[in-house]
Every structure is written in structure tokens, then in C-alpha cells.
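Reference record
================
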Amino acid sequence: MLMHPELLLDLTRERRRELIAEADRERLLTIARMARRTRKAPRGRGQPAGTLRPCEPSVAVPAR
């Protein structure tokens, strides 16, 4: 099948734009994932994971 040179050029330009847009999306997603990981990183063992305050420590109650 013969294709007109202008049509081939348009197809290649469109494909290149698609590849660039896909790479941009992937880059932005990677940056967002890294930012989320960075925000979550300071939490460690013994630290609350949520925003609520922890309950007061339990006190031993003498048996009745």
C-alpha cells in the first residue's frame, strides 16, 4: 500500500507527541509517588499512624 509522504509525516509526528505525553505522565506519577513516600517515611514504630490523639495509658484497677 502506498502512502502519501505528508500522511506518513503526520502519523510519525502524532506518534511522537503520544510518546512524549506518555513519558510526561509517567514522570509526574513517579514524582507524586516519591512525594507520598517521603511524607509517610518519618512514621516509625511506636508512633501513631493517624491524626487522632492516643488514648490515655491504661491504669491497673484493683480487683473488687
